[in-house]
Amino acid sequence: MEAKEIPEVVLNSGHKMPMLGFGTGTVPLPPSHELIPALIAAIQAGYRHFDTAAYYGSEESLGIAIAQALEQGLIKSRCEIFVTTKLWCTDAHPALVIPALKSSLERLGLEYVDLYLIHFPVRLRQGVKGAKYEKGDILPFDMKGTWEVMEQCSKLGLAKSIGVSNFGVKKLSELLQIATIPPAVDQVEMNAAWQQENLRKFCKENGIHVSAWSPLGANGAQWGSLAVMDSPILKDIAFTVGKTVAQVALRWIIEQGVTPIVKSFNKERMKENIKIFDWKLSDVDLEKTNQIPQYRAFKGERFVSENGPYKTIEDLWE
Questions:
Q1: Is 56 designated active site?
Q2: Which of 38, 69, 137, 308 supports an S-S bond with 265, CB 3.0-4.6 Å?
């Protein structure tokens, strides 16, 4: 499939983003000698939108893969690749945002990223690693101050578009009240088994594009589920239309106007996941998906603490 066959969405920043992203956040992360060829294979398969983050540890490999793709003539210029990276929670403070982005750019070997996201509406103490946090590790998050510097990243040309990840309606509302540059994207957990209808409605009304991580349920992750890939409803639709369950699940996301971030380093699945743009689900099939039980797989308990700003899971996600 040619990259030009992947539709693009025009973000509120005026920049275009391919409607299918290739994710690089996985645990455990493959070693670079495996990851770089996998990313080059993804470029060969037609992917042009790559999603990474400081937290993932995949920025350097992605940068090398882009450089090698240029050398091999797989792409003609840097501007053919859309790169998203994210500000990790330990750097979610006004004084740390620009240094963090510059460090990401250095690892990527790029002069700018196409999209820079606040990874979570959370601030962690500098130096904290892993996913288990002690008392005092989770600090108050200065949304206003942090976003003001995100806007500086845009004005400086370090990021063509800026946005957020894992922000619910309440936090987006707060952000829109203080933002001079509104977020272009909110990247959230979303799939047929966690449809995020209220959030999608809010984002549509406010010109924010939604992208979906865990579009297939992340069933390989410790926190993931089989709610998507084992869904009897999706299996039935897939059988009827002659597609795989993954293709049906991804096509459903596309038809909601959302950009899925797929993640597979298997070459055949890479090719399979990209074949979702030359067919549609019927109204009957779309109606069936409304019957799928809803389940948030990633609860985010690590960010919830009696001593921190989020006392409950609801506080974190609302």
A1: yes
A2: 38
Asked whether 18 and 82 are in contact (CB, 8 A), the reply is yes
CB-CB contact of 206 with 180 (8 Å):
no
Tens digits of residue pLDDT in 197-210: 999 999 999 999 99
Nearest to 93 by CA among 127, 126, 59: 126
DSSP helix/strand/coil, 61:
helix
Is-cis flag, bond preceding 28, omega within 30? yes
Q: Say how far apart CA 110 and CA 105 lie, in whole Å.
A: 5
CA atoms within 13 Å, Cβ hemisphere of 296: 12
The answer to whether 183 touches 162, Cβ cutoff 8 Å, is yes
Quick check: 115 and 53 in contact, CB under 8 A? no
For residue range 132-157, list pLDDT tens digits in order.
898 899 999 999 999 999 999 999 99
125 with 137: CB under 8 angstroms?
Answer: yes
List CB contacts of 86: < 8 A, sequence separation 6 or more: 52, 53, 54, 55, 116, 117, 118, 119, 165
CA-to-CA distance for 91 and 97, rounded, in angstroms?
6
Q: How far apart are the two ends of the chain, measured CA to CA in Å? A: 39
| Residue 135 and residue 305 in contact, taking contact as beta carbons nearer than 8 Å | yes
Pick the catalytic residue from 56, 116, 133, 310. 56
Name the token pair of 156: 């400086």
Residue 124 is classified by DSSP as E
